Structures are given as structure tokens and as C-alpha cells.
Amino acid sequence: MSLIAGNLAIVQRLLDGDQMAWAVIGGAAAHLYGDRRPINDVDILVERGALPRVIHLLQQSHKAVQADSGRVIWRGIKLFEDLTARFGSVSYPFWLDEPMRQHRRRMPLLGTQVFVAAPEDIVAHKLLLQRGPEQGKHDVTDVAGIVRRHQLDVQYLSVRLRSMGALELDKVRSRLNDFGIVLPATVI
User: Fold this and answer.
1) Measured between alpha carbons, how far is 116 from 109 in angstroms, rounded to an integer?
2) CB 95 within 8 A of CB 45
3) Partner of 126 for a Cys bridge, out of 74, 88, 136, 139, CB 3.0 to 4.6 A?
4) Phi-psi region for residue 114, left (φ > 0), alpha (ψ -120 to 50) or beta?
5) Alpha-carbon distance 156 to 184, whole Å?
């Protein structure tokens, strides 16, 4: 755990020093907002088009990174600029847009003050994906933990789901009902 903590501190200093917009997402964010299951890695969403800058910043600091067209991986830290989900021929966009930037917050994670996407952003993404133990993921249980511990801004949650094109998906609506989340009537 301490290796990831130290690496997260380095990445935080590099991103903040470059004044890059970013936010912790995924399981590490769910850890902060919900159930405290162990953190195995930290997923970070950066502004679109920023991955080449991230690579440059890390390499300039003499860090060896793995990179492909969609992510940068460095010692337990994974950085993405677009986590759009695709099911068949339909895409559900998820990137660090202006509403997500406005709703993110600073929180302590592994001894470092990081930007974290709002719980509504995490819930929306995990409700769309709904991956379980068979994929080595915890999306539904993460959402349950977040809902149990936070009063969600249902207006913002509905905005996020709409921007993703996921508001009307049966699997999302069904899970919203399961968790007792009622979206504003103007959205339904």
C-alpha cells in the first residue's frame, strides 16, 4: 500500500504543478465515499488530450511508464482521458467534462490531498458498467456503499446520466430503483 501512496503523491504533485484538471475515479473514489475495501490501484481521469503531457511529466521526472492510446500506467496508478463505455454499437461517454470538474472535491487518499470525482459521477459510471466479481470488479457493491453513506445530489446524478446517454437504460433505471434513488420528475 505504501508504494501506491508514494506514487500517488508524486502524480498529484506533477498534475497539480502542471495545473492539469484531474480526478480520482473508480474503486479508490468508491473507497472514499463508500465501503472501505482495499485499494489495489488508483484510477485517475485527466482532461481530454492530456495523456501526452502526463507521459512527458512522468518521463521528465525519470519515471518509466507504460502507455497505449487510452491510458498511462505507472506503478499502481492508471491515468485515462476517456472512459467511454461501448456496448455493441452504442457509446456512453465518460470523460472529465466541465460539470465533473465543477463537482470534484479535494480529499485525503493514502496521505495525499487529491481531487476526487463527485459521488454522483462514480455512481453513474458504475451503474452503467455493473461489473461484478466475475470480472474482478465491484461496481454494484460500490454503488450500494456510496448510496448508504451519502445523500446524493439527484439533480446532478440525472445530469451525469443524461450526458452519458444512460438515463433511459433499463439496467440503470432498475438499479436506481433498487437503491431507492428517485430522480427529479423533470428528468424522467
Assistant:
1) 9
2) yes
3) 139
4) beta
5) 10
Query: In terms of DSSP H, where are the helices of 34-138?
Result: 51-60, 98-103, 119-129
The yes or no reply on domain 2-178 and CATH 3.10.20.70 is no
**What is the reported pTM?**
0.94
User: What residue ranges do the domains of the chain occupy?
Assistant: 2-178
Query: Any idea what DSSP says for residue 38?
Result: P
Q: Which three cell numbers stand for residue 10?
A: 508524486
Residue carrying C-alpha cell 476517456: 82
Please give the sequence-ordered ranges of beta strands (E in DSSP) within the chain, or none if there are none: 22-25, 42-46, 66-67, 71-74, 77-80, 85-87, 90-92, 105-109, 112-116
